[in-house]
């Protein structure tokens, strides 16, 4: 009996050790899944209407710190609409956009969320009568910051023009000024609509560089573009064409 009992004991103790191990493994797994960071931004089945037409349909994207998302697609596919929605200018007609798990359409959340955003679009909001430097400083003042305007302009190759009236600037220089503003204000989420338009080769390189540096600090970058921009490990979201394409002059020439 004794030997029989003692013979069974090691098995039952092995069993309980194995069970304990399994339990521990399960606990570790559930802990690690708990620890998995929330996406900074989550678009959950988002659709968006403009002018009574569905422009974006059932978009699902999750974006973590350091991510770049490049939006591509034909004219009218909805790239700017996507950015406008993230900026809070348009509301999703269905689905939700969560920032740190909170719905950005909630007004309390939006007050905090909008302070994270840096918006760059074709409408450059440059004040013609201010100098180039004042145009950046003006944004700094609104932000309660100071001291970064000059270095940002110098970095973007506009140091020499800092005291010129901004109406003197060429298109590419205006774009560089917008990028200098982005650097001076330094907010974490960049929404860039066609940021490389009008930039020369060096300007595009600078743009690629500042995007890479921003991401290294954990910044998030959304870029809507038709032009190739080198962004390492970017997620690409190609928005579908909204209407069947009619024949164009290009097809006739082919
Ligand atoms: N201000 C507006 N009011 C109403 N509808 C608009 C407005 N702007 C754009 N739209 C509609 O939304 C659709 C998507 O436009 P959007 O500007 O998002 O496209 P896009 O992909 O950025 O185009 P592009 O490559 O030409 O910049 C357009 O086809 C247009 O019908």
From TrEMBL:
GO MF, one annotated term: transmembrane transporter activity
Keyword Lipid biosynthesis: no
Region (Disordered): 1-31
Tree of life domain: Eukaryota
Pfam families: ABC_tran (PF00005)
SUPFAM superfamilies assigned to the protein according to its UniProt record, in alphabetical order: P-loop containing nucleoside triphosphate hydrolases
ABC transporter domain location: 41-252
UniProtKB keywords: ATP-binding, Cytochrome c-type biogenesis, Membrane, Nucleotide-binding, Translocase, Transport
UniProt keyword Electron transport present: no
Biological process, per Gene Ontology: cytochrome complex assembly
NCBIfam families cross-referenced by the UniProt entry: ccmA (TIGR01189)
Protein name, entry field: ABC transporter domain-containing protein
Protein species of origin: Protea cynaroides
Source lineage: Eukaryota, Viridiplantae, Streptophyta, Embryophyta, Tracheophyta
């Amino acid at each position: 009996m004794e030997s029989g009992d003692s013979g069974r004991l090691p098995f039952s103790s092995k069993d309980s050790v194995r069970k304990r191990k399994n339990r521990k493994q399960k606990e570790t797994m559930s802990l690690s899944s708990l620890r998995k960071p929330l996406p900074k931004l989550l678009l959950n089945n988002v659709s968006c209407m403009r002018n009574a037409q569905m422009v974006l349909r059932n978009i699902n994207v999750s974006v973590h710190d350091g991510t770049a998302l490049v939006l591509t697609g034909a004219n009218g596919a909805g790239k700017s609409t996507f950015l406008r929605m993230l900026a809070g200018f348009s509301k999703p007609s269905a689905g939700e956009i969560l920032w740190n798990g909170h719905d950005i359409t909630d007004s309390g959340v939006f007050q905090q969320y909008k302070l994270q955003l840096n918006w760059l679009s074709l409408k450059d909001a440059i004040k013609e009568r201010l100098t180039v430097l004042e145009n950046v400083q003006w944004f700094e003042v609104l932000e309660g910051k100071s001291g970064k305007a000059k270095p940002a302009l110098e970095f973007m190759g506009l140091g020499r023009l800092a005291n010129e009236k901004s109406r003197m600037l060429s298109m590419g220089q205006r774009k560089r000024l917008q990028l200098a503003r982005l650097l001076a204000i330094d907010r974490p989420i960049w929404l860039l609509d066609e940021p490389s338009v009008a930039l020369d080769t060096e300007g595009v390189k600078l743009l690629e560089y500042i995007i890479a540096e921003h991401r290294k600090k954990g910044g998030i970058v959304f870029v809507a573009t038709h032009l190739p921009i080198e962004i390492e490990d970017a997620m690409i979201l190609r928005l579908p064409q909204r209407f069947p394409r009619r024949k164009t002059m290009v097809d006739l020439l082919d």
